[in-house]
Amino acid sequence: MPKLNADASTSYCIDIANRQVTVTLVGVVDPQHLMKRQAELRMDPDFDPGFALLVDALQADLSAFNADLLRRLATGIPFNRGAPRAFLVNEGLNHAMIRMFQAFGDTSGHVAEGLNIFRDRASALLWLASERR
User: Fold this and answer.
1) CATH code (residue 68)
2) Which residue blocks in 1-133 are alpha helix, DSSP H?
3) Best exposed site among 40, 88, 91, 110 by fewest CB in 10 Å?
4) Strand 52-61 vs strand 20-28: parallel, antiparallel, or unpaired?
């Protein structure tokens, strides 16, 4: 059974059977909450850094993030290099923020490899399934 860890704006669920972590962001996302969630995930005994990642930010507002915070999140990502990561975002600011996150990962070597951005859940899940094969 998947395990859920949550607060007001961020939550994650570890699905061991499908080797996937799903992070859900809702409303105005507090960067400190997201960094806390990232640290909790790293320490979670059910977490495997080789798992796939799905980040659903379709209902999120990422306007509280700045370049420094995105850089810190990108360099602190607990997943293995090349682990498939799918981000669900709408056009606009959230899309730009994820692109910036990806760029910081490019320069540090932590994120860009294996990261893809989607606008619908079905496409993201299909891509993650194909990447895990």
Assistant:
1) 3.30.750.24
2) 31-43, 67-75, 93-108, 121-132
3) 91
4) parallel
Q: How confident is the model at residue 1 (pLDDT cuts 50, 70, 90)?
A: very low
Confidence of residue 76 (pLDDT cuts 50, 70, 90): confident
Residues 6+ apart with CB under 8 A from 68: none
Angle between helices 93-108 and 67-75 (to 10 degrees): 50
Structural domain harbouring 26: 3-132
Taking the C-alpha atoms of residue 52 and residue 18, their distance in angstroms, rounded to an integer, is: 9
Q: What is the C-alpha R_g of the chain?
A: 13
Number of domains forming the structure of the chain = 1
Report how far residue 107's alpha carbon sits from residue 126's, in angstroms, rounded to the nearest whole number: 28
Length of the chain: 133
pTM for the whole structure:
0.85
